[in-house]
Write a structure and sequence with these properties.
The protein has 288 residues and is an alpha+beta fold. It is rod-shaped, with a radius of gyration of 35 Å. The N and C termini lie far apart (81 Å).
Length: 288
């Protein structure tokens, strides 16, 4: 078995291999254009497989790359669209055992390694979701909501990658021909099960994020209710002052204490007494 590992899709070596092994031009074009979906495209003499390695940065933003494979009865071609250490380690680990493996087994080992790399990322996302729920409960600020929405985008990306990868495993299990041997079927089913579990976990995480958004909205509503309640109390307590000041501001004759030398103090005390009386009444009615 010949194994050709291409580190740069624009390497002319890929063109020479395409001519040598009669690779379809559209598949070469897919190798040189990023953002392909994970897929399997059978040809007469080989399989073209696109896998989606994923990395998660410190800000929990997804970085998704493409890893392309051409798998035939006597050769394997891997095309790395991005030079990541994790991909190099995976391919290097498989190449150490390549002398004892068939091409379809090489493909399975790489597929299984890519799928296994998703689990630690989902664990990191789960931990971050727990932190965001605590932040939402402690301080429902707009910045926290922005983090929650960013996490939803990350989960959406992981869901799309895993759903397409599940389709790849399903397609390989149902593929008829000599390129995929029968003894590989249990291993492909195992990959399919792993991806299905990942999708179940992602759905659970999305529900947790949805609950975090509900908590945020509830916190904002409670805060607004508290503000409105405080404004209502202030408005209620200021009502006696407005009424009394309005009456004494009309310059009517014979108003109580209007000619008293301490009228200002008496009216101010009357306003204060009314405010205290209203405050006591609101407390007794448990409105504040």
């Amino acid at each position: 078995m010949d194994w050709h590992d291409i580190r740069d899709p624009n390497d002319p070596e890929l063109d020479r291999l395409a001519e040598r092994y009669k690779l379809h031009p559209l598949h070469i074009e897919d190798c040189r254009h990023r953002n392909q979906i994970a897929k399997v495209e059978p040809q007469d003499n080989y399989l073209f497989v696109v896998l989606k390695p994923v990395q998660l940065d410190e800000e929990h933003e997804l970085d998704i790359s493409d890893l392309d494979l051409f798998v035939a009865a006597d050769f394997v071609i891997t095309v790395q669209e991005t030079e990541w250490t994790s991909i190099d380690e995976l391919i290097g680990h498989v190449r150490q055992r390549a002398g004892r493996l068939r091409p379809d087994q090489v493909m399975h080992r790489i597929l299984d390694g890519v799928v296994d790399s998703y689990s630690p990322l989902l664990d990191r996302l789960s931990h971050r979701i727990d932190e965001l729920q605590d932040e939402v409960l402690a301080s429902p600020e707009p910045g926290v909501l922005e983090k929650v929405l960013g996490m939803k985008r990350a989960l959406l990306g992981m869901r799309r990658v895993n759903a397409n990868t599940r389709d790849v495993a399903n397609h390989l299990m149902r593929l008829e021909g000599d390129l995929i041997h029968a003894d590989l079927q249990p291993f492909l089913r195992d990959v399919y099960d792993h991806v299905s579990r990942n999708l179940d976990l992602i759905e659970t995480q999305r529900e947790l994020l949805a609950s975090a958004v509900d908590i945020y909205l509830s916190g904002i509503s409670n805060r607004m209710s508290g503000v409105m309640k405080a404004l209502t109390v202030v408005s209620t307590l200021s009502l006696p002052a407005i009424v009394i000041a309005g009456i004494y501001g009309m310059n009517l004759r014979r108003l109580p204490f209007a000619d008293h030398p301490h009228a200002w103090g008496i009216v101010t005390g009357l306003i204060g007494a009314c405010c205290v009386l209203l405050l006591v009444l609101l407390r007794l009615l448990r409105l504040i």
